[in-house]
């Protein structure tokens, strides 16, 4: 089997937006629905054991990403050329629908079943899935914490970062659930790193994956998670959802010093996918900036890893890389279910992880409160300033200085608009973010109480 992942997941009792059944079940633009079955150990044939998966961040921001049309065309051509090497393809940052249409058209012979996800305010989450096998159902779950509307120049809040689910029917009529995501990016140290938001997204995604596994699906989590292997995000997938990192499962956990390695060694030994000097868009970055941000996680009780490698590293005509990230591919071998292959995680390890997460939430709550208060103060101060400016207009008119009155009115309009917008962000978004943090804190406390009872 071959899998190329484009964000997706299934089976969780969350808001879902699955495609409506269509009359032509062979259509390439709609999902085909199949009768429900559970995974049986005796139905995996010797000829249907392999599942090949690819995930790739395409860097497809309109008007922002450099040489986007050229690069997306190259990605389409390479997928069409290498289509026999994958069964499922997962893509991130495909924010222009015409780019996805181009990819879908080029690869229709290899991947007749596709799903593009639309949820979001402006461009959608940029997630897509291509599959050799029928997509039974699909939905998208928007993350509860997802950046701030004030950071419009970053765009995470406006595109609606999400986890996308696609439930794919394997030729044996059993289900593979793909969960594809592009988590919030870190933009700098401190508050600009968005560590709390990103970890909250991992918490939601890990619980969805766990429910999918419990429902009997072969669950595969993939995407640009914007997190390093040692992060709390990575721990949540491994310790709470009991998934395995395909790269580490095959190559082991990397503990070396990336700054002392060549770019080639960084890829071969550490699985680096971002900020590699071999990537034309990051060629000037220090060796120490190289990192692994793109992942494929899987349920080890139902599959083993035969191969995991960094993909899409070749440059196209003109000498540029197809994206600012490299892709990741993995080959899995399906096995009869054996839960003993799940990693053994002690209650002490989980408690420590939850305590670390709670400390992160507590710290960020202070930041959230401060930001909301500053915005609300700005709104109230703007009211006083606008009143003062309007009074000043009267004095300017009394002295027959019309141009001064115009300046005061223009200033009053600008201050009123910015004050109202900031007040709305401070009150509406501030309350929304705080309640999301309180909910997250409550869920973590509940998880700790349940551990204490074991």
Molecular structure report:
- This protein is of the alpha+beta class and 454 residues long.
- The chain has two domains: 3-341, Deoxyribonuclease I, Chain A (4-Layer Sandwich); 347-453.
- 39% of the residues lie in helices and 18% in strands.
- The chain has helices at residues 68-81, 97-106, 156-159, 195-214, 232-240, 246-251, 263-270, 347-398, 402-453, and strands spanning 3-4, 50-60, 88-94, 113-116, 128-131, 135-142, 162-169, 175-182, 218-224, 244-245, 294-298, 303-311, 327-334.
- The two termini are 39 Å apart.
- Residues 1-47 have low confidence and may be disordered.
- InterPro entries: Endo/exonu/phosph_ase_sf (IPR036691), Endo/exonuclease/phosphatase (IPR005135), Sph/SMPD2-like (IPR038772).
* The CATH superfamily title of the largest domain: Endonuclease/exonuclease/phosphatase
Helix/strand order, N-terminal first: EEHEHEEEHEEHEHEHHEEEHH
Separation of termini?
Answer: 39 Å
User: Biggest β-sheet: count, sense, barrel?
Assistant: 7 strands, mixed
Strand content: 15-25%
Rg result? 25 Å
Structural class: alpha+beta
CATH topology of the largest domain: Deoxyribonuclease I, Chain A
CATH class of the largest domain: Alpha Beta
The best one-word shape is globular
Q: Low-confidence parts, pLDDT < 50 over ≥5 residues?
A: 1-47
Number of helices: 9
What is the domain total for the residues?
2
Going by CATH, the architecture of the largest domain would be 4-Layer Sandwich
Family: Belongs to the neutral sphingomyelinase family.
Protein name: Endonuclease/exonuclease/phosphatase
Pfam families: Exo_endo_phos
Keywords: Endonuclease, Exonuclease, Hydrolase, Lipid metabolism, Magnesium, Membrane, Metal-binding, Nuclease, Sphingolipid metabolism, Transmembrane, Transmembrane helix
